[in-house]
């Protein structure tokens, strides 16, 4: 078997890609696996039903698909891929013995990114797969820039809009309590004016990384959605009350011990947190919850700062006693 060249090796090493091969002929599966197994994860499936099931489970980066298979053809399976939201964007390359132009046109019209005729040569299959994996790598890189904040390396507001909605509906289906909230750095304009914007950027990165680590311990996530404003969510576990999680996040910033002499001689950088605990349901929207979290934040910002205001809503979305700490 011909060795991968340096460029192919670079692409392979940048991400541990998974290639799924679906073909009813064991010989073809073994040949395809031999081409890629040393550089990529290879998943082999012998029929369309098995391929669809494993594609949902594995979510491969690219699929190599035969057309002529018993029970369900590759064309039929391709239509199922395109109709499923999880699988619709996975690139598919048909590798088939069908030689007619009409068949190739049909495959491409169904959404395949390429069409390779059997018998194939190792070099052509390898080169075409690597070309499409490079496109995937570039697309993922662009997506990272589009969905992540370059300063803090946190996901940004656009990513929040995607992930928070997913978490909301998931919790709604499972009837699981969640906390959604907002974190704001106290007196941050004064900090920038006193220490300079470069120092302010360093502070934002430290705060972002610190709270990210804390929320990660509780299966939560944080997003930079404004200059010094962060949105977050986390599930409420029986083992640890939401108020404890929020207090831990608050204390972790104090523990950084970053001086803030623009506020006072012995003052440190701190944050204020407004949050809402709720079991997501159809009678209230996430936007309304975040509005209430913003109101909780406003209460803190106009009182002590360096504190948490947690609003708990019951099954009827009615307020449970407000806790300010």
Can you put this structure into words, describing what you see?
This protein is α/β, with parallel strands linked by helices. The chain has two domains: 6-147, Rossmann fold; 157-324, Reverse transcriptase/Diguanylate cyclase domain (Alpha-Beta Plaits), CATH 3.30.70. Helix content is 47%, strand content 19%. It contains eleven helices and eleven strands. The chain has helices at 6-14, 26-36, 48-58, 74-83, 101-109, 122-147, 157-174, 188-195, 197-217, 242-254, 286-301, and strands at residues 18-22, 41-45, 62-65, 92-96, 114-117, 178-185, 221-224, 229-235, 271-278, 308-313, 319-324. Strands 7-8-6-9-10-11 form a six-stranded mixed β-sheet, with helices on both faces. Strands 2-1-3-4-5 form a five-stranded parallel β-sheet, sandwiched between helices. Strand 7 and strand 8 (229-235) form a beta hairpin. Helix 9 packs antiparallel against helix 10 (242-254). The chain is elongated and about 80 Å long. It starts with 5 loop residues before the first helix and ends with a strand. The relative contact order is 0.09. The model is unreliable at 1-14 (pLDDT under 50).
| Straight-line distance between termini | 67 Å
CATH superfamily of the largest domain: Reverse transcriptase/Diguanylate cyclase domain
CATH-assigned fold name of the largest domain: Alpha-Beta Plaits
- By DSSP (H or I, 4+ residues per run), the number of helices equals 11
What is the count of structural domains?
A: 2
Secondary-structure-based class equals alpha/beta
Q: Can you tell me the residue ranges where pLDDT is under 50 for at least 5 consecutive residues?
A: 1-14
Order of strands, widest sheet: 7-8-6-9-10-11
Number of beta-strand segments: 11
The assembly state of the depicted protein chains is single chain
By CATH, the architecture of the largest domain is named 2-Layer Sandwich
Q: For the CA atoms, what is the radius of gyration?
A: 26 Å
SSE order:
HEHEHEHEHEHHEHHEEHEHEE
Overall residue-averaged pLDDT value:
90
């Amino acid at each position: 078997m011909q060795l991968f060249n340096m460029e192919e090796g670079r692409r392979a090493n940048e991400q541990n890609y998974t290639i799924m091969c679906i073909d009813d002929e064991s010989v073809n599966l073994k040949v395809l696996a031999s081409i890629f197994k040393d550089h990529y994860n290879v998943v082999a499936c012998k029929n369309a039903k098995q391929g669809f099931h494993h594609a949902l489970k594995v979510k491969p980066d690219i699929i190599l698909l035969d057309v002529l298979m018993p029970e369900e053809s590759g064309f039929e399976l391709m239509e199922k891929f395109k109709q499923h939201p999880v699988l619709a964007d996975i690139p598919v390359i048909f590798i088939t013995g069908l030689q007619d132009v009409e068949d190739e046109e049909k495959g491409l019209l169904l959404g395949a990114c390429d069409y390779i005729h059997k018998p194939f040569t190792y070099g052509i299959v390898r080169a075409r797969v690597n070309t499409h994996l490079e496109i995937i790598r570039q697309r993922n890189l662009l997506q990272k820039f589009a969905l992540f904040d370059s300063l803090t390396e946190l996901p940004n507001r656009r990513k929040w809009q995607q992930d928070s909605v997913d978490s909301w509906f998931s919790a709604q289906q499972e009837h699981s309590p969640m906390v959604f909230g907002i974190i704001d750095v106290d007196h941050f304009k004064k900090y920038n004016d006193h220490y300079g914007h470069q120092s302010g950027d360093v502070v934002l990165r430290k705060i972002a990384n610190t709270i990210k680590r804390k929320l990660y311990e509780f299966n939560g996530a944080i997003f930079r959605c404004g200059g010094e404003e962060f949105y977050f969510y986390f599930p409420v576990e029986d083992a640890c009350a939401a108020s404890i999680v929020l207090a831990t996040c608050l204390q972790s910033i104090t523990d950084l011990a970053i001086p803030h002499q623009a506020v006072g001689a012995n003052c440190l950088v701190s944050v204020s947190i407004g949050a809402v605990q709720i079991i997501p349901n159809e009678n209230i929207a996430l936007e309304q919850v975040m509005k209430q979290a913003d109101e909780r934040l406003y209460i803190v910002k106009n009182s002590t700062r360096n504190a948490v205001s947690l609003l708990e809503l019951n099954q009827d979305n009615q307020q449970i006693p407000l806790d300010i700490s």
